[in-house]
C-alpha cells in the first residue's frame, strides 16, 4: 500500500471529504493536492507527513 492509498484509507475512516481533510492539516493545504496524493500523481513532503 503506497502513501496515497494509506492517506485515502485514513481520510475515509474518519468520514471526511478531501476538502474537510485538507482543512484539518495545519498550514495551507489545498483539496486538489490531497487528491493528487491519493491518486499517486504527487508525493507529499516529509514536512507535510509530520503534520
Automatic annotation (TrEMBL):
Coiled-coil intervals, chain numbering: none
Domain HTH cro/C1-type: 7-51
Gene3D superfamilies: lambda repressor-like DNA-binding domains
Protein name: HTH cro/C1-type domain-containing protein
GO molecular function: DNA binding
SUPFAM superfamilies on file: lambda repressor-like DNA-binding domains
Cleaved signal peptide residues: none
